[in-house]
Amino acid sequence: MDSLTQIVLGAAMGEAVAGRKLGNRAMLWGGIGGTIPDLDVIGNLFLSEVDALAFHRGISHSIFFAVVFSFFIAAYTHWLYKGRTYQHPVYKWLVFSIISICMIYFVCISSFLILSSWSGIGGWIFSIGLIGILGYFLFVFYKYYIKVRLEEVNVSYTLWYLVFFGSIFTHPILDCFTTYGTQLFAPFSDYRVSWNTISVVDPIYTLPFLACLITAAFFHPTSTKRKWWITAGFVISTMYLIITVYRKDMVNSVLHDTLDSAGIEYTRSMTTPTILNNILWSATVESRDSFYTGLYSFFDSEKTFKLRTIPKNEHLGEPFIHNKEVKILKWFTHDYYAYMVRTDGYIQMNDLRYGTLDTGEPGENSYIFRFIIKVDPLKGTQIMIPSGGPPSDRRKNMLENMIKRIKGI
Fold first, then answer.
1. Is the four-CA dihedral 170, 176, 181, 187 of positive or negative sign?
2. How far apart are CA 210 and CA 84, in angstroms?
């Protein structure tokens, strides 16, 4: 899931474990724990694009990591509060600066993504709203963290460990519900667990949970209302996850009926929700020489997937069959991939698990994960992972087209 969702879930876990003794600090440290697994993106600075893609949601998202790393960060926080180092002005300003930089970075990236696909007045209003929330958060953080003498904290090492284990462990568990896949059993297995029931960004899961969390933060740590709001956040988010599992079962039934009606022989299939919602679903079906992909909305008048054929074009990949990075990409895609020839003459390998970025006929810029294979006489085979999604002329209409498709055919 996205970073905001993981912070919210981690903060809620911290509150559930130690809110009565730590107050809002439990939310703060739980939120930090909830985002720690995603710090594996630092690998992007040292690894090739393909290796970084495989490294993300690897060891840092495993049960092993949650168990072991929690020992170390719990030891740090136990020392920090036992020695009252957290009261020192230099330490407080350091923490304030780090969190501020992270929040500013998050808002800038979010605003960029919003304006890239929603360039109208609505996108600007949403982005300005995010900036306003950021400013208010930093003001409150400065007022109640920098300007005041903090309360004394006396919490056992065991409780600190439970705070971080709970917040770190729930991160990969939630990620398992998405399509990307999580190496939950690393380093003992590189199997990627993916249940494909929820989009990597789903406001219906995140926003009610966030609202309950923020409301709870305004009550005293021992208040019954605080406990009630946190419980409500967990119940609402968990019930929504259960609903996504039920919906996936319904969608799978629709897909199988579609395939049976069309007389399509296939070896395997998968379904996954499209971005930002759980109403419009994408299907990928593998047959001997091709894949079938299509969309189905719960608002469609007919309970059937509208499928189109994408040839595998395995012959295009034969020259790279022994290439290490190509093997990694096949593993990453769960073998749901197809080759195509780009307009510039290069070979492109497309990850078909996510469907396409728009609802039209798929082109070389339509896939979320696409890999360009270039052969250099001196450097050999190189893999490039383009970013930025579809061209700007299509990006402007992407969100609008998706909303129309969600409304059904």
1. positive
2. 31
Cβ partners under 8 Å of residue 191, min gap 6: 183, 184, 185
Task: Report the chain's terminal Cα–Cα distance, integer Å.
Answer: 29
Task: Tell me how far apart the alpha carbons of residues 260 and 22 are, in angstroms, rounded to a whole number.
Answer: 57
Q: Of 338, 1, 25, 51, give the one whose Cα is nearest residue 175.
A: 1
Q: Which residues contact 72 (CB under 8 A, 6 or more apart)?
A: none
Pairing status of strand 347-351 against strand 280-286: unpaired
Say how many C-beta atoms besides its own lie within 10 A of residue 369's C-beta. Answer: 18
The reply to whether omega before 311 is within 30° of 0 (cis) is no
Contact status, residue 405 vs residue 280, Cβ threshold 8 Å: yes
CA distance 165 to 269: 35
Q: Which of 189, 170, 161, 230 is nearest to 6 (CA)?
A: 170
Express each pLDDT in 223-267 by its tens digit: 999 999 999 999 999 999 999 999 999 999 999 999 999 999 999
Query: What torsion, rounded to 10 degrees, do the Cα atoms 39, 42, 43, 45 define?
Result: 170
**Mean of per-residue pLDDT scores for the chain:** 88
Q: What pLDDT does 358 receive?
A: 61
Q: Is 0.85 topped by the overall pTM? A: yes
